[in-house]
Design a protein that fits this description.
Structural class: alpha+beta
Number of helices: 5
Radius of gyration: 20 Å
Shape: elongated
Order of helices and strands: HHHEHEEHE
Helix content: 25-40%
Strand content: 15-25%
Largest sheet: 4 strands, antiparallel
Number of strands: 4
Mean pLDDT: 95
Length: 146
């Protein structure tokens, strides 16, 4: 389990993963050794899975975000999930409770890419139905919670 110091380190890394251990230590008022040791431990435990850049997808030309609900038959959900996950437009795949089996979040540059993606989904064996919702406005999109 993580404590307050770990949380402070994680918040700093989420704000800017490029800052040095020394900078983090100064901001949260602990020793550099503490930051190094705790960060390494959280990496080894898999709490920190990696470091990445946060992209502005719209500025990269991905103007369409969709949320697609799918229904899968014959208990093949994991198999279908893995196939959908391979598509480069797919941002997230969630198995869910309720009237559908999975929800996919994906981003596209244009309607043609979206059309091809949707047709591809429907061609995957065991996908019975797909219901796609086009996002009109993104109010919040941030997975950096702690």
């Amino acid at each position: 389990m993580i404590d307050n110091i770990d949380k402070k380190i994680l918040k700093e890394l989420l704000a800017n993963a490029r800052q040095s251990h020394r900078e983090i230590a100064k901001k949260i008022e602990v020793s550099v050794g503490t930051v190094v040791t705790r960060t390494k431990k959280m990496e080894e435990e898999g709490l920190i899975k990696g470091y990445t850049a946060i992209l502005d997808h719209e500025r990269l030309g991905y103007e369409l975000t969709v949320v697609t609900e799918i229904t899968v038959s014959q208990g093949r959900l994991l198999e279908v999930d893995k196939e959908i996950s391979k598509n480069p437009h797919t941002c997230a795949v969630y198995d869910v409770t309720g009237t559908v089996d999975a929800i996919i979040v994906a981003k596209f540059r244009n309607r043609n890419e979206l059309s091809n993606f949707t047709k591809g989904l429907l061609s995957i064996p065991y996908v019975e139905r797909a219901n796609t919702h086009v996002v009109l406005n993104t109010i919040k999109e941030n997975f950096e919670i702690l």
